[in-house]
């Protein structure tokens, strides 16, 4: 009896450790103390802004990609909309359109986070800046749209011009905006400078 017990103990000790768990999703509790309402030309509070956003059809959040405070604000906005039971579709520029199937598989639970990240070419700051947004959407079964043009097409346009798009097969052309406009305005001048 003792040798069997020792053998069982030995086998249990010799088993490899379980694979590491993915890092916990940071549920940021950041809430700005005040926000500026451009219509009222006055400062207001975050909850009032969320009430307005909950009634909107589309909310666009501009960001500096390397600004952690903006990402904390984005997460706080989604959390506020969760509290209000507002269904949301999240669109993220950081994902390129050709990785939508990998993103959908992860959100649907048919792919691991590790496999999703291998297939989706996330930006270097994904885990600190964007992961919480994806996880909030996943927890709520919200769709997430991979909104950016694939880099290879953007690079080709930069190298050879917009005419290069006409040579793309239909399936690849679908990964680029259907209508391309570039107004020659003050923003264009600042960008070109």
Number of helices: 9
User: So what's the CATH class of the domain at 34-148?
Assistant: Alpha Beta
State the CATH architecture of the domain at 34-148: 3-Layer(aba) Sandwich
Strand order of the largest sheet: 1-2
Written as H for each helix and E for each strand, in order along the chain, the element string is: HEEHHEHHHEHHH
* Residue fraction in strands: 5-15%
Strand runs, count: 4
Overall geometry comes to globular
> Please, what is the average pLDDT?
83
C-alpha end-to-end distance: 83 Å
Name the structural class.
Answer: mainly alpha
Write down the CATH topology of the domain at 34-148. Rossmann fold
| Unreliable runs | 1-21
Percent helix among the residues? 40-55%
Main pleated-sheet profile? 2 strands, antiparallel
Gyration radius, in Å: 23 Å
Detailed description of the structure:
- By secondary structure, the protein is mostly helical.
- The chain has a domain at about 35-150: Rossmann fold (3-Layer(aba) Sandwich).
- It has helices spanning about 1-15, 45-55, 70-85, 100-105, 115-120, 125-140, 150-160, 170-175, 185-190; strands at about 35, 40-45, 90-95, 145-150.
- Strands 1-2 form a two-stranded antiparallel sheet. Strands 3-4 form a two-stranded parallel ribbon.
- It starts with a helix and ends with a helix.
- Residues about 1-20 have low confidence and may be disordered.
């Amino acid at each position: 009896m003792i040798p069997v017990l020792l053998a069982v103990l030995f086998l249990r000790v010799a088993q490899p450790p379980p694979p590491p768990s993915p890092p916990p999703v940071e549920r940021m509790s950041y809430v700005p103390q005040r926000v500026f309402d451009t219509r009222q030309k006055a400062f207001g509070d975050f909850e009032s802004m969320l009430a307005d956003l909950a009634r909107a059809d589309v909310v666009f959040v501009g960001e500096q990609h390397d600004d952690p405070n903006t990402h904390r604000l984005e997460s706080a906005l989604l959390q506020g909309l969760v509290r209000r039971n507002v269904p949301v579709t999240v669109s993220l520029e950081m994902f390129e359109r050709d990785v939508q199937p990998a993103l959908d598989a992860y959100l649907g639970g048919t792919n691991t986070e590790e496999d999703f990240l291998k297939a989706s070419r996330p930006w270097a700051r994904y885990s600190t800046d964007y992961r919480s947004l994806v996880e909030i959407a996943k927890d709520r079964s919200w769709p997430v749209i991979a909104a950016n043009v694939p880099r290879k097409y953007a690079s080709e346009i930069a190298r050879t011009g917009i005419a290069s798009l006409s040579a793309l097969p239909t399936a690849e052309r679908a990964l680029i905006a259907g209508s391309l406009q570039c107004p020659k305005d003050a923003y264009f001048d600042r960008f070109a400078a």
